[in-house]
Amino acid sequence: MLIAVYSMPRSGQVWLTRLLADAIGCPTFTWLPQDGGRDIALEGLDRESEHRVTRAHSISHLNWPKADAIVHLVRDPRDVLVSTKHFRYATETWRAAADEVLCGWNNYARQALQWEGFGHADIVFALTYEALLANPVAEVERVVSGCVADWSHARIADAVERQAFARKRSALLADTPDAADRQGRFRHRTNARHMRRGVAGGWRDELPQGTAERVLRDCDDDLLQHFGYLNA
Question: Does any domain span residue 232?
Fold first, then answer.
């Protein structure tokens, strides 16, 4: 079975991809052959399994190859915005980052509510980053138990511990490849850079009030309400 994690960038997709693969005991998979070893979610390539977990930000990627199960991951758009600002717009204004995030969040969230058949997956799940962060074992168990027959609560709990944000980030920073391996050192630094804080609600400490108000104004009220973000 090929399981695809589908989300807007900066929504915890890499974490969930690695977490599901670890919990199942299978490798992650990159859908673009030219990516080679550059996909930051690649992990567990030595695991032997009939299952694989991949990730996608674009609907078209879910058809190459066809995903058997799709896991939609949705995150508070204000936290997505803060993460995007730090990662892609560090030297630019909040408006530039907001323009990018607000251009796509409604579409991603709406697809999680009403999957329209893109990818033609037989199994579809919708998770929120906040629920995954609050109770990762239960959320991962919900997905894994619906996708594979050979699973256990203990293995999922162990995977959650191994993939814990602080532990994973520390390991990436500490386990630096040999100094001669420049590509390896770059890959480790890049992977660690993708893991900034790993929190929910961090926007309250950083997002200017006017920008936070714009997010609520531009995002669909029904979607915000459904996922619990409207009055958060």
Answer: no
